[in-house]
Write a structure and sequence with these properties.
Two copies of one chain form a homodimer. By secondary structure, chain A is an alpha/beta fold. Chain A is about 45% helix and about 15% strand. In chain A, helix 4 runs parallel beside helix 5. The longest helix of chain A is centred in the last third of the chain and has 22 residues. Chains A and B meet through helix 1, helix 2, helix 3, strand 2 and helix 4 of A and helix 1, helix 2, helix 3, strand 2 and helix 4 of B.
């Protein structure tokens, strides 16, 4: 039975009931949209606002994704000084030693992170990811209009986000795979004009492309992101899939569209 | 009895035992160092790496701080696109509506946040903080060596962090109090040469000053931060207090030093 083992009985307080409902809904959604997806990207904010019951719901969502053969990208955009970044690495992709034994973290395959504080703030995350065979997606140029406030501002010769991209590429060998690097980049899709230049600056990084659908980004404009190969970009469309009246059809439609774009990019490359 | 009501019996799994131990230790630390402090600043990474039991320990630490009459600064450095920033605002300082009633968030008095994604990513946090009488500390110039990678880089006429500071000051009226604004700034203390200029750029913001002690910052170099009044800056020294053999004495020693610096700054101003 769905929900067996979840520690909160119906009738408990609002946080526990909401946590249970969210876990059930996420499990259901993984079942519906999963066959057309390669990964789930839980937005941590939406879980942690329920406190401990939210964290249980997150763990259950991760377990459902795993059972369905999907990758898990923990979308928390964490970024902190090195000592704290190491703790985030333990929580998201590693584990935490305690006197009573290791506490496993969330077990994500990858996490979104912020490099705002510089390369040393990413180092503990890169180290843990390398150890665990996990990946990271560093915020480079996000999809919100306010990204223009800081990220698009000129540094002496180029916009600031190009400097972030250069930092990502410099760190990419730390998660080098077979051709591509697991040190990826979050590149918003609402301003697709940036994408070709960012692919040039980060030829090895897997791109995570949010903003398609609900935020106005278009899959057909993303070909440049796939210039490093058909596996070199992941398109995310959480809200337009989760909020669709038929999530399975919405996911499958987008999958077909993205596959088409990726194949065309490859044949041009 | 300490620990009464905590849902995890000793003998349970490592995460639960570690969560219980951390909660007890944090309660103890609040009792020892609290009398010399104005606030506790829990680093969320250190709690969330234990999953749900970590979140329980965090809630218990917050409750202990409140009982001791201390403010709570949730140190999570969250920063995301507006829709997700709104969820973080609910989780840290607001509450989340559910069909079964409102779920209260952590109830922090303030939170550290990242403005990397621009002003619109801060707006939902500012709105919630204004509603709840809470404050925010935006990362401006952090205390890690890597801050030089991006934050210290020149934009056309000044280092990039000055641009961040200008954004903070532009948003400060949204949390205006009596003279000072609750939209504060995180300004690391390991490079105190920046502080006078940042006070000039953000005359209304309360400064949160990490990096004293364990990270090498010195309290006596922070006078410029207090130029907007003795309540215009908060010095944090989590590791050098929590890791001291006598946390009460360490906190009291730092309190006396900071008070001296703040008073001297005021008499000069």
């Amino acid at each position: 039975m769905a929900g067996a083992g979840f520690p909160y009985a119906p009738g408990a307080d609002p946080a526990k009931r909401a946590g249970e409902a969210i876990a059930l809904w996420c499990e259901h959604l993984v079942g519906l949209a999963g066959p057309a997806c390669v990964a789930v990207k839980p937005q941590l904010a939406c879980f942690e606002r329920l406190g401990a019951p939210g964290w249980w719901a997150l763990e259950r969502t991760v377990a459902a994704a795993r059972s369905a053969g999907l990758l898990v990208i923990a979308d928390g955009k964490r970024g902190d000084v090195p000592v704290s970044a190491a703790a985030y690495a333990q929580g998201l992709i590693g584990s935490t030693p305690t006197p009573w034994g290791d506490v496993p973290g969330l077990g994500a395959d990858a996490a979104t992170v912020s490099g705002f504080l510089g390369a040393d703030s990413l180092a503990p995350l890169v180290d843990t990811a390398a150890e665990r065979g996990a990946g990271l997606f560093v915020l480079v140029r996000t999809s919100n209009p306010g990204a223009a406030d800081l990220l698009d501002q000129p540094s002496p010769s180029a916009p600031f986000y190009e400097r972030v991209a250069a930092m990502v590429d410099r760190l990419a060998p730390g998660l080098a795979g077979d051709g591509l690097s697991g040190l990826g980049a979050v590149v918003g899709t609402t301003e697709p004009g940036h994408i070709a230049r960012l692919r040039e600056l980060m030829p090895r990084s897997v791109f995570l492309l949010p903003g398609v659908g609900a935020q106005g980004g278009k899959a057909e404009a993303l070909g440049d992101a796939f210039a490093a190969g058909p596996a070199s970009a992941i398109v995310t469309a959480s809200r337009s899939v989760a909020g669709a009246s038929d999530p399975a059809a919405a996911a499958e439609g987008l999958r077909a569209q993205v596959w088409d774009v990726a194949c065309r990019a490859e044949s041009t490359a």
